[in-house]
């Protein structure tokens, strides 16, 4: 199924709102995470939403964010063509410092949606910046996500030492003035490594924000950032109170690192020479009777292990979100 734009993504959010489930938004910085995700989501028959952050773009482009953004987007779009689900791309936490990248993404239809993060700015400046991006994207089919409130912690290139809960009344004014399609709210989650059981999570506040928006005629889907440490029951409560999108980045970073660490630990003897062998990496141990085992050090081998572990976690998160079987792609389209 080809990569899908914002019009279809909004359709997916509307169905999630109606039927009481959500989508995990999964950050990617290279192919192994994406391949693990798309295999799991295909198996679960769930549409897949992936995210590219400024830091991921910088990494993928060897320091060049524009090159990295284009490379990641085109990789995702090309691979998506071979799978029978919708694949969406969101720009995650792009700020005024990345306005040129936002412009590039809009002009070349690199993404389905864009999260413009001006949450650290005063309210009126946040409104102005988000409205400018929303106006630029108008008519392109690309959705705009904006954030009101501050989430504590560090995520990629965004950091805050303090949390600032979203005010329900301000949320209504903010959405009305920005024309944002999605609203990221702050209700006590935290970027980075956090434990859901220790968070002062305001599930009730999410519900109040949804109610205020609906009372004002706004069906704006709500987004939860910093959700990697949440417990399953907390995820469920958030979805019941209007959250349609939960961001996952730190969790996949850990799974990736853990999978690679365990693989190399278990296969160290195939790669690290014994103590009595000269460490001749440059000549690949040509003068030694000992040789490393290519069947283990080939990066594609550990890559497959990473993909498998990413897929295992993704399957569990799909179950938490309730998005299994929720694809816009019909059985007829799959068969054709």
Please tag this protein with its features:
336 residues; alpha/beta
Radius of gyration: 21 Å
State the order of secondary-structure elements, H for helix, E for strand: HEHEHHEHEHEEEHEHEHEHHHH
CATH homologous superfamily label = Aldolase class I
- Based on DSSP secondary structure assignment, what is the total number of beta strands? 10
**Proportion in helices:** 40-55%
Question: Within the largest sheet, what's the order of strands?
Answer: 1-2-3-4-5-8-9-10
The CATH C-level class name: Alpha Beta
Instruction: Report the end-to-end length measured between terminal Cα atoms.
Output: 10 Å
Low-pLDDT regions? 192-198
The structural class is: alpha/beta
Q: Could you please say which CATH topology applies here?
A: TIM Barrel
Mean pLDDT: 92
Record the SSE blueprint:
Elements: H1 6-19, E1 23-27, H2 31-44, E2 48-52, H3 54-60, H4 65-80, E3 87-94, H5 99-107, E4 113-116, H6 123-137, E5 143-148, E6 153-155, E7 158-160, H7 168-178, E8 182-185, H8 203-215, E9 222-224, H9 232-240, E10 243-248, H10 250-266, H11 294-297, H12 299-321, H13 331-335
Parallel strand pairs: 1-2, 1-10, 2-3, 3-4, 4-5, 5-8, 8-9, 9-10
Antiparallel strand pairs: 6-7
Helix pairs in contact: 2-12, 3-4, 7-8, 10-12
């Amino acid at each position: 199924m080809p990569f899908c734009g914002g019009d279809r993504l909004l359709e997916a959010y509307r169905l999630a709102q109606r039927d009481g489930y959500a989508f995990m938004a999964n950050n990617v910085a290279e192919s192994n995470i994406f391949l693990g995700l798309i295999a799991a989501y295909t198996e679960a028959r769930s549409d897949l939403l992936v995210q590219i952050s400024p830091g991921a773009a910088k990494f993928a482009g060897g320091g060049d964010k524009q090159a990295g953004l284009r490379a990641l987007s085109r990789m995702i779009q090309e691979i998506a063509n071979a799978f029978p689900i919708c694949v969406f791309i969101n720009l995650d936490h792009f700020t005024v410092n990345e306005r040129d990248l936002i412009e590039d993404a809009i002009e070349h239809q690199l993404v389905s949606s864009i999260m413009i993060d001006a949450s650290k700015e005063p309210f009126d400046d946040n409104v102005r910046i988000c409205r400018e991006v929303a106006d630029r994207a108008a008519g392109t089919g690309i959705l705009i996500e904006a954030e009101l409130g501050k989430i504590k912690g560090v995520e990629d290139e965004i950091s805050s030492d303090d949390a600032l809960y979203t005010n329900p009344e301000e949320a209504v004014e903010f959405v009305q003035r920005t024309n944002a399609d999605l609203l990221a709210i702050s209700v006590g989650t935290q970027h980075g490594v956090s434990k859901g059981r220790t968070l002062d999570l305001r599930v009730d506040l999410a519900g109040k924000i949804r109610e205020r928006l609906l009372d004002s005629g706004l069906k704006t889907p709500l987004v939860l950032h910093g959700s990697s440490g949440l417990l399953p029951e907390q995820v469920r409560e958030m979805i019941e109170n209007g959250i349609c999108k939960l961001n996952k980045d730190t969790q996949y970073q850990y799974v990736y690192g853990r999978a690679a660490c365990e693989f190399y630990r278990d296969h160290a003897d195939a790669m690290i020479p014994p103590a009595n062998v000269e460490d001749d990496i440059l000549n690949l141990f040509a003068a030694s009777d000992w040789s490393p085992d290519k069947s283990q050090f080939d990066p594609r081998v550990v890559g497959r292990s990473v993909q498998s572990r990413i897929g295992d976690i993704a399957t569990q998160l799909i179950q938490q979100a309730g998005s299994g079987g929720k694809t816009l792609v019909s059985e007829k389209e799959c068969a054709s």
